[in-house]
Design brief:
Blueprint lengths: L1 H20 L2 H27 L14 H29 L6 H22 L6 H30 L4 H28 L9 H9 L4 E11 L5 E9 L5 H16 L1 E10 L13
Parallel strand pairs: 2-3
Antiparallel strand pairs: 1-2
């Protein structure tokens, strides 16, 4: 909440300052910060909804909201970058005079605020949604630093074109990270195998269990940005204790692959082809 409050206040100050001194870089930075404030709010809402217990109608709870929030946040940032790039190209063709000293001073405050917010988020950076907010804050700090540099150069040299030129450069850097975020969030929203889970290695390791003769119908997907699920059919010989075997496999999945929601179907003797879905592996 502290990070959100600081960024809301700074967005207002920076946007007004950008209008007063006619700096595209400041306005761009303010718009970028505004999109990230929205991203932080989406992340907060996603965490709150994700912690709600499952119901009879939503048996996995609302954890997937965090994936949707990460995707929306990334798309909003990409749209913002596109609009800013269009404006920057126009400013390169017709550079506008501006007060470089004011630009650099306002942007320097942004470096501190965005850096502080990123530091507050860094401990949760393994969660995709928190990583999205963390990347946004780091990108904001980078944008603000570039604006500081642009302001100083304009202040000392009156090279008005530096303002839109650096804006375009920073947009390219930010978009690189944003594209990776969008791609991962879209992948998870389509039930793709989560990053960090090597499904081929997982299948091979399951096959090495002494009791297992074959593995099929293996599926791994994300329940949220930090929680994964698995279903699998294991073909086995006779088991002395089914419960002990299942507990051992579930413990292995949780400790080795971070999968804590596992549904395992046992088949005895040989693989059973149910013929229900030709797309199952």
């Amino acid at each position: 909440m502290l990070g959100i409050a600081l960024n809301v206040a700074y967005v207002i100050v920076e946007f007004v300052a950008g209008l007063l001194v006619d700096s595209l870089a400041l306005i761009a930075d303010a718009a970028h910060n505004a999109s990230d404030v929205l991203g932080l709010l989406l992340a907060l809402v996603a965490v709150i909804l994700g912690d709600r217990a499952a119901t009879r109608h939503r048996t996995y709870g609302l954890g997937r909201v965090s994936i949707m929030a990460a995707l929306i946040s990334g798309l909003l940032l990409a749209l913002t970058l596109g609009a800013l790039a269009w404006e920057a190209i126009g400013r390169l063709q017709e550079p506008q005079p501006l007060d470089g000293q004011t630009v650099s001073m306002v942007a320097l405050v942004g470096v501190g605020i965005n850096g502080l917010t990123a530091w507050l988020l860094v401990k949760g950076s393994q969660d995709l949604n928190i990583r999205a907010a963390f990347l946004h804050m780091m990108a904001d700090a980078l944008v603000s630093l570039a604006v500081v540099v642009a302001g100083v150069i304009v202040w000392k040299t009156q090279w008005w074109w530096v303002d839109p030129a650096l804006t375009l450069l920073v947009i390219v850097v930010i978009f690189y990270g944003t594209w990776d975020l969008i791609r991962e969030a879209l992948h998870l929203s389509l039930d793709g195998v989560p990053r960090g889970v090597d499904i081929d290695r997982l299948e091979d390791e399951l096959k090495t269990l002494p009791e297992v003769k074959d593995v099929h119908d293996l599926h791994v997907w994300a329940l949220s940005t930090s929680d994964n699920a698995l279903t699998v059919h294991l073909v086995v010989d006779a088991l002395e204790s089914v419960n002990e075997f299942l507990a051992r496999v579930q413990t292995y999945l949780a400790e080795r692959h971070g999968i804590r929601h596992a549904t395992i179907q046992i088949e005895y003797g040989q693989r059973v082809d149910h013929g229900l879905d030709p797309n199952c592996l």
